[in-house]
Amino acid sequence: MSQSTVTTPPAAVVSPPVGLAARGVNRAFTVKGKELVALQDVDLEIAKGEFVSIIGPSGCGKSTLLRIFADLLPVTSGTPVVDGVTPQLAREDRRLGVVFQSANLMPWRSVLRNVALPLEVMGRSKAGREKTAAELLKMVGLEGYEKHLPRQLSGGMQQRVAIARALSTDPKVLLMDEPFGALDEITRERLNQELMEIWARLNPTVLFITHSIPEAVYLSNRVVVMAARPGRVVEVVDVDLPQPRTPEMRDAPEFHAIEARIRHLLATGGH
Ligand SMILES: Nc1ncnc2c1ncn2[C@@H]1O[C@H](COP(=O)(O)OP(=O)(O)OP(=O)(O)O)[C@@H](O)[C@H]1O
Fold it and tell me: Domain named ABC transporter: which ranges (predicted)?
C-alpha cells in the first residue's frame, strides 16, 4: 500500500468515548386525544466521566429524558446511547445506577441489606455483597448505621443510602433525578460536597437533574438548559471552574456570572 492511500481514522476512533448521548431524540405522549411533545429533537453528547446537569422549568422533559436513558421509557424516534450501547443493554449489563428524589428504600430491610439488594438480585454471595455494601456505606458517611432501619434515618441519610445502593453494581453511568430536591439547604450543600468526592473517586458519567442553579453550577462540567412546550435543549453552558470544587467557589464572581447566564436562559427560553 502506498503512502498516498493511507486515510485518517474515522471520527468514531478519535472522538472521546460516549458516556451518554441523545441523537435526534423525540418523545411524544397522547393526552386526552392530543399529542404532547415532551422532547423535541434533543441532541446531546456527554463524554465518559463527565458530570452534566439538566435544569429547566417544570414539564420541559427532564425526567422524560432521564427515564429514556434509564430504559424506563422508549423514544418515539431517535437514538439514545448509554455507555456506548443501548439503554436496554446498559441496564441489563448493570452499567446504570439511578437515584430519584425519594429514596425508595425497603422499610423492613436494614440499611446494609438495602444497599446490598441489587447484588443479591445478581446472585452475589452474602459475604461478598455485605462487604461491598459496608464499604459503600462508609464512603457515603454512614458507617455505624448498617443495622438501622430506613425510618430511623433522616431524609439526607436515606438519600445517602439510595446513592450507595445505586453505586453497588459499580455502574459506569449514574442518573440522578432531583436527588436532593426534598432536602434542606445545609444538608443539600453537604451532600453536593460528598457527591463531588464520590465522583472524583469513582468517575462515573453523571446526569443530574435539578431545579437549583447554584447546585447545577457547583457540581457540573456542563449545564444543559431546557425549555418547555415543546421540551427542548436551549443551550449547553460550560462551567469553566477549576476542579475539585470548593465551597468558597460559590462566592466567586466567575460562579455568579455562570449562574446569571443560566438564569437569563431560563427566563428567556433562549430567545
Ligand atoms: N407517562 C406520561 N403520560 C403523559 N404525559 C406525560 C407522561 N410523562 C410525562 N408526561 C408529560 O411530558 C412533559 C414532560 O414531563 P417531565 O416529567 O419529563 O418534565 P420535567 O421537566 O421532569 O418536570 P418537573 O420539573 O416538574 O419534574 C410534561 O408535560 C408531562 O405532563
Answer: 20-253
C-alpha–C-alpha distance, residues 266 and 225, integer Å: 7
Which grid coordinates belong to 181?
Answer: 430536591
Task: Give residue 17's pLDDT band: very low, low, confident or very high (50, 70, 90).
Answer: confident
Tell me: do 179 and 266 sit in the same domain.
Answer: yes
Give the burial class of 87: count Cβ atoms within 10 A of its Cβ; 0-12 exposed, 13-18 middle, 19 or more buried. Answer: buried
Contact 232, 40 (CB under 8 A): yes
9: pLDDT confidence band, cut at 50, 70 and 90? Answer: low
| Residue 157: all three cell numbers together | 441519610
Average pLDDT, the chain: 92
Of all protein residues, whose CA lies closest to atom 26 belonging to ligand 1? 58
The answer on 267 and 191 residing in a single domain is yes
Query: Measuring from atom 8 of ligand 1, which residue has the nearest CA?
Result: 64
In one-letter notation, the amino acid at residue 33 is G
Q: Would you give the DSSP letter of residue 10?
A: P
Within this chain, do residues 27 and 119 fall inside the same structural domain, yes or no?
no
CATH number at residue 60: 3.40.50.300
* CB 63 less than 6 A from any atom of ligand 1: yes
